[in-house]
Amino acid sequence: MTTTPPPDSTDSPNSPSPSTSPASSDSPGPVLIRPCLPTDLDILERHMPSPGRTRRHADRFDRQEQGLTTFLTAWIDDVPVGTAQILWQGCAAPEVQARFPGCPELNGLGIWPPDRRSRGIGTALIRAAEQRVRDAGHDLIGLGVDDDNHRAAALYLRIGYRETGCRYLDRYAYLDADGVRREVADPARFLVRSLGEAPARPE
After folding, report:
1. 68 neighbors 88 (Cβ within 8 angstroms)
2. Three-state DSSP state, 12
């Protein structure tokens, strides 16, 4: 699914170092961003329920435990308000792998509930992911954005991501409320940002 804190001294991309970002004036407290812990899963499901019968948070945590991802969580006053993951092996789409081999992907960025959006939480998650990718030795990070997600695309371009002309079908599956597997293939495009550049600030 498209989107659509730095490592500790061990330099492991999955180390649980938190980062804290100031929240906007509309938020009740600072945003704490850190990798998901086993004890977070029930809390995440309570506040940010997985769709249908999908075990979204548990599945993402399992991939983190395998070293394939870093599953980032954002918290305000001990309540989860956002998630994202770094796919260290990059986007699975062959079109993207051919163009950007070895480029980690920021994936599955989500803020909940919707009234928390446009308060800087998404940008804080993006910057935390970028810092981890930079500290892991990569100079490029990418993300996918579905064609109909104009709001997200505008944010990514505003904070320094650029168009690449790389298009693909974003394929994923989930179990609906009846336990039926649903296959999805959304037209999407891949954006990248050079981590050697100073981060742009959203207007």
Report:
1. yes
2. coil
Residue the block writes with tokens 């170092």? 17
Q: Quote the tokens at residue 171.
A: 């394929």
CB-CB contact of 123 with 111 (8 Å): no
Q: Picking from 4-8, 22-26, 84-88, 92-96, which range would have the lowest pLDDT averaged per residue?
A: 4-8
pLDDT at 63 over 60: yes
CB 83 within 8 A of CB 59: no
Contact between 133 and 104 (Cβ < 8 Å)? yes
Contact 81, 21 (CB under 8 A): no
**What are the tens digits of pLDDT across the range 144-164?**
999 999 999 999 999 999 999
**If you search the block for the tokens 């990418």, which residue do you land on?**
142
HSE-up (13 A, CA, CB side) for residue 101: 1
3-state secondary structure 25-59: CCCCCCEEEEECCHHHHHHHHHHCCCCCCCCHHHH
How confident is the model over 92-134, as pLDDT tens digits? Answer: 999 999 999 999 999 999 998 888 887 889 999 999 999 999 9
**3, 108 contact by CB (below 8 A):** yes
The model's pTM is 0.82
The amino acid sitting at 197 is: E
Quick check: 14 and 35 in contact, CB under 8 A?
A: yes
Sign of CA dihedral 57, 112, 114, 152: negative
Closest listed residue to residue 87, CA positions, set 40, 49, 135, 143 = 143
